[in-house]
Amino acid sequence: MKTILLTGGCGFIGSHFVERLVASGYRVVNLDALTYAGDVANVSSVAKADNYVFVHGDIGDGALVQRVLSEHQPNVVFNLAAESHVDRSIDDAQPFLKTNVMSVYALLAQCLAYWRNVASDQQSKFLFVQMSTDEVYGSIEDGLFTEQSNYAPNSPYAASKAAGDHLVRSFRVTHGLPTAVVHASNTYGPRQFPEKLIPHMISSALAGQPLPVYGRGVQIRDWLYVDDLAMGLERVVKSGEDGGVYNFSGGDERKNIDTVTELCGLLDELAPAHDTYSDAITYVKDRPGHDMRYAMSNALVGDRFGWTPTTSFADGLRTTVAWYLDNRDWTKRIAAKGYDLKRIGTG
């Protein structure tokens, strides 16, 4: 049974990935610090599984990571632990530098020490995978980013993720540690913390709050349903290669205002109110350095892994809205952790 040390597995993407790996028969060790966006309830479906272990802790805690590596002897370390909200990074970049750069360095250092001391046959099968974002490539007016595109991050968040990616590459080139990097386009679905565009708009609409849209809402995002991404990440666990760079995108681009309008239409249908929800859309001053368009090619992962997204945006959005309607207690619990509905949610 292949053992996966997955960091940040109580977050949005991580929890869906944990569920998929456990269902596929992998032994999963989930290391999570349970910061504001992480919740053990997100992985309650696998909590009692024989092939699942939860460890509460920070990837920057070298002694803890060393102990977890020694005890569980993972074949793959998949790092999803991150600070990931652009607006928060504009307000204060320091937590992003700590988690996305310094803690990634600490995790890499412990993985390198572990890898150097395992048997040679285990060394050849080991892989450290860094979860990154399409935002490290910056904004693109036409065409698609590929795995060979240069980095050009435009926000403190994206810059911190780019720095972490570069550290991963440096440990491979300098020290020989087998590594790979994964980039994903805007991912959405159930259990996403409501600071991101889609869950923020759902939560705000249900609370009778304004739906703030930056500028005129013409920024373009490529949307990928979380279960499709989890399927792709499992392919990386199964067949990813040392030095691999893998871009996963939904191939479903749309303007932010169109996403919000479509979402309002679904809410009108599934949770009708006195007024149409779109009446609450308000336009606010655009944020600094706002990228106009993200778009990546997923041709490589299609050829390499036979992966392609299977969930249309219409179907995924309907499923997502229905989940939030059925799980309002989850949103209330998140709000109790200090989330402010008046905070801007972005794509």
SSE inventory with pairings:
Layout: E1 3-7, H1 12-23, E2 27-32, E3 52-56, H2 62-72, E4 76-79, H3 86-91, H4 94-116, H5 120-125, E5 127-131, H6 156-175, E6 179-184, E7 186-188, H7 197-206, E8 211-214, E9 220-225, H8 226-239, E10 245-248, E11 253-255, H9 256-270, E12 281-284, H10 299-305, H11 313-326, H12 328-336
Parallel strand pairs: 1-2, 1-4, 2-3, 4-5, 5-6, 6-10, 7-9, 8-12
Antiparallel strand pairs: 9-11
Helix pairs in contact: 1-8, 2-4, 4-6, 7-9, 9-11
How would you explain this protein's 3D organization?
With 347 residues, this protein is an alpha/beta fold. It has a domain at 3-190 and 224-251 and 292-311: 3-Layer(aba) Sandwich (Rossmann fold), CATH 3.40.50.720. 42% of the residues lie in helices and 16% in strands. A 7-stranded parallel sheet has the order 3-2-1-4-5-6-10, sandwiched between helices. Helix 1 (12-23) links the parallel strand 1 and strand 2. It is globular and about 65 Å long. The two termini are 38 Å apart. The model has no long low-confidence stretch (mean pLDDT 94).
